[in-house]
Amino acid sequence: MALTKQNKKRVPLVGPALALVAVLAAPAMAAQPDGETIIRNNCLACHSETGDKAAPFSRISEQRKTPEGWRMTINRMQALRGAKISPEDKRALIQYLADNQGLAPTEAEPYRYLLEQDTNRVEEGIDEGLGQMCARCHSGARFSLQRRSEDEWKRLVDFHMGQFPTIEFHSLARDRAWYDIAKNETAVELGKNFPLITPQWNSWKTAPKADLTGRWRVLGFVPGKGQFDAWMNAAKSESGYQLQLEGQYADGSKLSGSGNARVYTGYEWRAALTIDGVKMRQVMAADAKGGEMAGRMFPAAERAIGGELRAVRDQGEAEVIAVMPSLLRQGESAELTILGQHLEGDVSLGEGIEIEKVLERDDDSIRVLARATGSEGARSPSVGSASLEGGLSVYQTLARVEVVPANALTRIGGNGGEMEKVRAVYRAVGYSAGADGKAGTEDDLRLGYMPATWSIKPADEVAAHDKDEDFAGSIDAHGIFTPGDAGPNPARKMSANNVGRLTVIASVNDGDAQVRGEGSMLVSVPDFVRRVLD
Amino acid sequence: MKLNTLVKSSLLAPMGIAALMSAAPASADQEYLLTVTRPGQLHVIDMATNKVERSCDIPGKFGSGSIALAPNGKTAYVLSNMTEDVYGISIQNCDITFHVAQSEGNIRVKSVQSITVSTDGTELYTVQNPVRHLPDRFEILEPKLAVYKIADGMGAKPVRSFPVERRITKIAATETGEVILGGGDVTAINTQTGAVRMVTALQNWDRGPLWAPPDAFAMHSQGEQTNEYLMPYSTAKFEDESMNMETAQWWWGMSRVNLTTGEAERMETVPFQFIVFNFLTDPRDSNILYGSFNTLSKHDISKHETLIVHEMPHTYYNLNISGDGKTIYVGGTSSDISIHDSETLDKIGSIQLSGDMTTSDLRVATIRD
Fold this sequence. Notes:
By secondary structure, chain A is of the alpha+beta class. By secondary structure, chain B is mainly β. Chain A binds chain B through residues 45-48, 58-59, 155, 158-159, 161-163, 165-166, 168-169, 171, 173-180, 494-495, and chain B through 83, 108, 110, 112, 129, 131, 133, 135-140, 166-167, 169, 183-184, 203, 213-217, 294, 311-315.
């Protein structure tokens, strides 16, 4: 508890006013000497002091990482290098390193999915060479979320050779001078693409950090339960924020929870809450002004089953945050809920949309019965002076259904084995064809999430021959796919385990018709290594 | 289909053993099948009875199960202790007569399968991959061929060493005083001078743009029945310089080194239709190859044809063959060795071991009378 103890001791000395200024300017930012002391006390059995003030500790000072990245590093030092560090010192050290050697928001932004543990995707834009040299074993985001000096990237190559002695014998390694390429080409490229010193970090490091205290209007999705809206109160605590959350799901049932949040690097929101008895995690990024946060929430015990999460801080102004559902079929009456804060004044859903009845109304939620008579297209609903651009879409015909994630990976498990099953959750997004009348073109209008009926089929002839659809798992009415049991299955060819390749189908009603969308599912073997970041 | 095969093999099993036993008196040579199982046993299987004759405990944590044979067949050299140590174990009484701990001080040394014994039985060779463990970093050192005198016994230290390329897996000694090194290419190193010559260029072959660079890889040593070293590879021949993977012809190929002369032949063998983890030459006919993985297969490379594909009940990485070429032993991966008639590939028996072979070698030691 070195960090907080010293802070406590210092507060009376500097006086309440100065302490308050410090907290507002850099909430949860550790003062430099404390972090360095923890490093001196815990890390110098192996690392050395360089004498260089700009980079005081060997290796440590030549890297920048996300909070999760630093946690992985310290985990490895404990598990493999014999480091002994108390839980309090570890928490404080992660805070210190993420605050002082973190990533600027713009540096982390393209790869946030990995921090959010949203890994059901085929990564795009990863350089082919780096893909073969690095991303054949882990995600491209894993190394793209690190910044190192060129020498330090080279040491990372040597770490891989030392830690994984067969690395140069793998497929896609043994066919080339792997170590030579890794050290003399890949590390150099990484040093150029992801250097230690960047203008973004230099600017972010010195920028004032927002205070995230306050009342947040939160919208999210919990698999199996659906969309919810809530209020989350964040009150300052010793290590970050204390949280209270109250809200309701779209079906009217309540949700309630409490917990704590830490903010790293001035914007990385990491919260642990217990909501209705389930331990949940929030991973969000705050914008520079501290007015909005966006990310994902998932159960602590099952990070694959999560949903998107958005929070808008109550700053006393009227704001329309969402309309749920966000679509309305021409000529049909439907119930819509406008969600926001300080919703006062006239309600409009946009041109050609008639509000037949206001069913319920209060300060942060307005439920209406509405009917669209106008043309297809996006509308900007408003309440009083507040409006939400493109918050509602009117459509005539549902042109196509996109299944998200388009590509997912689940893992067999359970059945007395070491590892739990890794499930996946699917949602269906509807589109209308847009002005050109053709589905699948750039002007398609995204309507939003739609209720769907879910089914699976074998991905191809080979999967059909192996009866993957019978063995690999099943999907429920909520779009949650549960893979099969782990272990050899005598009913399968070669007693294979219950792996498989499936197509997941969403069927969405459009009037009397049905529109189908498909996603790809790989049901794989258990992964016995649990990484903080994959 | 599977049921039929099982019924047939169980009927045939007694006949197969009877045939083997009746064949035994024709030769005074005794063949033993050797393999390693987790957690650390060397099994000595009498190939006349297909029974485990003895199981020797191997010191240290499981390595990779790599086995090198003394030319007289009496000692097996096993890679142990996470592929850092080599133990010489008598297959006749389990006595440990030789031990090398390659790692020393802050330098950790691993061998990736690479151990072999000189054809006169006096020297043991390993390819070493050293890494210096500094307090806060690793330093990757150059790999080398280390030469040990077997007469030095327990605690032997290298008597010579020479630099070699990275990525060397299985190695084999020739009668010409060289060690064949299988890596990106197949090369040979003179064990006295360290001079390295190209035996078969694979990664560095020069066959023009229409041939894809080969993926050459071998984890297991066989070839004791034919005195050869076989490095399989896969490649693709493109139709034209558009290099369309869809229309390319996919091939298995091999570099096959005659260990008497050190000379090699390289060729495409059969079309790549399924994965084969190890190939083996029939001692009676060098045009006949057998392959194992999810299937046991038989190939005629003179015609580039796959003759028989026998579905296996699980994956078997490895295979070997009796000296008369009649009986194939398929092992590795799990805990059972499957015995097959080389003519039909029908299963004729099975040997159950006490643990999983995983990546272990399956070798034949012949003790000549």
